[in-house]
Amino acid sequence: MPDTGRERPRLSVRTSVSVPVRLRDGRETTPSVVSFHGLPAGWPVDKEPLALVFGTPGPVPLVRVHSECLTGDVFGSLRCDCGPQLAEAMARFADEGGILLYLRQEGRGIGLYNKLDAYALQDTGADTFEANRMLDLPDDARDYWVAAAALQALGHTEVALVSNNPDKQRQLTEHGITVVEAVPTGCHVNPFNDRYLRAKVDQAGHRIAVEAAGTAGVVEAVGTVGTVGEGALS
Ligand SMILES: [Zn+2]
User: Fold this and answer.
1) Which chain residues have CB less than 5 Å from ligand 1, an ion?
2) Which of 14, 98, 118, 190 could lock onto 131 through a cystine, CB 3.0 to 4.6 A?
3) What is this structure's pTM?
4) Residue, of 127 and 156, whose pLDDT is higher
């Protein structure tokens, strides 16, 4: 997410259109896809955020703030857990209602090409955070103010946040969103993302119970998420 260094404005709803979608389990559902007015001047068109509103969210909606991952979301990359997390949220929201905020901050905010450079370094032994440092890039450049502003534009300041990432919850809180409940996601581990998930747990405090990790032949073992300790926010 670009940091404009300027005052962060309020957003308002620009358009809301129905977009029927087919979920990965084959079901169909029709969220409203919402765009926003009020992004700072110069905001790149390829960074425009979206909200997908499923059903009629209650006063404390389930919310997933998802950062774009082209390789995971679109191509089904097994190097990370983004695709399964996105699919899990959409399936859940189709059943229970909810808001998916899709933020265009690829590669934890460093961009697509840098992410691929980091993958190349990971293939020589670095973990996901070490690789970023070797490239003189931050561990995590994501900025969630636009998610908070979008939620406010949709009329929500209290949410049940579907996430394992403590930084996401902290930033939303700083930007005026009350996280009433933290709802953990599933643990989507496979032999290719095992090290990545462990690094997120060990170095960024993500709350994921990485189970069955690296087991040959296990392509996607959806395990349980660890019950997290007091004040647990994921
Ligand atoms: Zn990913």
Assistant:
1) 69, 72, 80, 82
2) 118
3) 0.83
4) 156
